[in-house]
C-alpha cells in the first residue's frame, strides 16, 4: 500500500499499469475533498469528488470481453488548498 500526498496542483496518484486487476484509492484526510481525474489537467472544477473518508474500488472480474473496458491508466488528484493523504492499493491480474 502506498500513501500519496495530494497537493493543490495536479498530483499523480498512480501511474498507468496494463496489468492492473483491481485498484483501491481511499481519501484518509479528515476534512478535505480530493478531486480526481485521468490526466494532469484535473482541477477542482472538472475533477470527480472523493470526499473525506471515502474510497473508490475498481475490480476486473476476468471476463475477457469486459477487459477492454477496464481502465488501467493513470489517476491524478488535486485539492483546493493544502494537501490531503490518499492510500492506494493496486493488485495485478492473476488470470
What can you tell me about this protein's structure?
It contains no helices and eight strands. The protein has one domain: Jelly Rolls, CATH 2.60.120. The mean pLDDT is 92. It has 95 residues and is an all-beta fold. A four-stranded antiparallel sheet has the order 1-8-3-6, with no helix packed on it. Strands 2-7-4-5 form a four-stranded antiparallel sheet, with no helix packed on it. The protein has strands at 2-6, 11-14, 20-27, 34-37, 48-50, 55-59, 75-78, 84-92.
Keywords:
4-stranded antiparallel sheet; 95 residues; mainly beta; Jelly Rolls; elongated
Briefly, what is this?
The protein is mainly beta and 95 residues long. The protein contains no helices and 8 strands.
- Summed up, the helix count is 0
What is the average per-residue confidence, as pLDDT, rounded to a whole number? 92
Intertermini distance:
22 Å
How many strand units? 8
The description of the largest β-sheet is: 4 strands, antiparallel
Sheet/helix structural class: mainly beta
What is the CATH architecture annotation? Sandwich
Helix content: under 10%
Task: Indicate the CATH topology.
Answer: Jelly Rolls
How do the helices and strands follow one another from N- to C-terminus? Answer: EEEEEEEE
Beta content comes to 35-45%
The radius of gyration over CA amounts to 13 Å
Question: Spans of 5+ residues with little confidence (pLDDT < 50)?
Answer: none
Gross morphology: elongated
State the assembly state of the protein chains: single chain
Supply the CATH class: Mainly Beta
